[in-house]
Fold this sequence. Notes:
471 residues, alpha/beta, six-stranded parallel sheet, 18 helices, 11 strands, 14% strand, globular
Amino acid sequence: MPATNIVIIGAGSASFGPSTLATIMRSPILKDSRLALVDLDAQALANMARVAERMSDEWQAGTAIQASTDRRDVLAGARFVVVSIEVPPREVLWRLDWEIPLKHGLRQPYGENGGPGGLMHACRQIPPFMDIVRDMEELCPDAWLVNFSNPLPRVTRAIAKYSRIKTVGKCHQLDVGYAIAAFLLADHFGFEIPPQVDLHSDPANVPVIKMMAQLGRHYLDIKAAGLNHFTWMVDVRDRHTGQDLYPALRAAAHNVPAGFEPLTLELFRVLGYCPVPGDTHLCEYLPWTHDPAGKPWEFYNLRLYDWAGNEAYRVFSQDMVAKMAAGSLSVEGLRDVPSEGAAELIEAIAGNANYYADTVNVPNAGAIPNLPDETIVELPALVSGLGVQGINLAPLPAAIAELCRREAALVELVVDAAVTGDRDLALQALLLDPMINDIGRARAILDDYLAAFARYLPQFTGEWKLKPCLV
């Protein structure tokens, strides 16, 4: 296959960068590709470029590597642009996303992708993404943008709505769904599981999540659909026999040890279909997780993001990358690192591989009949030279579809507010959010947000305006 021109924006990330580089470098299909790395952190970028050079040399990948802090230096002629960025400082801003509503009596269960925190997260992320998109329209208008950044459906929808750049969002939260199903069906298959299984999104839990997900993927085939971090298992089968395992899964849901994903299991028993993302993310899209009288976060053990722990993990990861760059630590440990999912999409589109992707985020276009066509949905897809085509599924169950439609309508308002900087639209978005039940509180939260985050929200201060579409 001819050399593929790939750009990775946000390549300096010590968590995302090494695994993405490794899966591209070890791919025989992508051998001899041209790879450009972009990051605003010059030192992190230099370290990652050196790690990439070591991989290419030691694994005989033949990759031509370039690095720049200015994406415009490397975008011309790109066929794929992989983006994983976050407006910094991530943990500091996220903590404020959560703390500001708390002053007004609203305790969000998580505050990353839904709730008022999700609105602010989107408003910070979407302008830099749209700047990337406009540069792509000028320099590589036929390229695919592969998005890994949260809030994923909101960012991906902004790209799809306000540009003609081809885009697909990628997330591996389905692994948690496989872990949940493996836990519930352990007796059915006769395998042992650890005595304490905690799927909460913390670095310390990653090993057990991966182990449980691998068990699940060995025994099961799950097809899930909905919105990112709000998907539902629509079909669960024995991977080896094709047997429908949903009856066994439903039976197991009524005999679960206390404390295992209680919100997920509650909704499973009520609605008859199992949510995929686990309690950590599921809680962000529901109206039943923040009542100050009932304190459902205590009943369901809904824990916040471990800001300090994740900051420490980032420092540790950066140190590992620096050691690999300096040559004091081998890159061989990255040969078998799990894929982030970018390499498979690039291989399939560039090489017309007819690849089945178990989850992608793309415009619905009728694939889920009872969700709007323009909604960014997460579902299985066929990936080939034709692009990324979601697989047509049956309608979602009525109650689940309605929950998803409400979130889809909210996404449209959030995206428009984030692109235009329209304060009225931002207030409307807050009022449509399932966590808000008071107009005065919504207005007070918004006022405080816009004051606290003014330097990060240039669209609301008039310092940033979306450029016209160039394609």
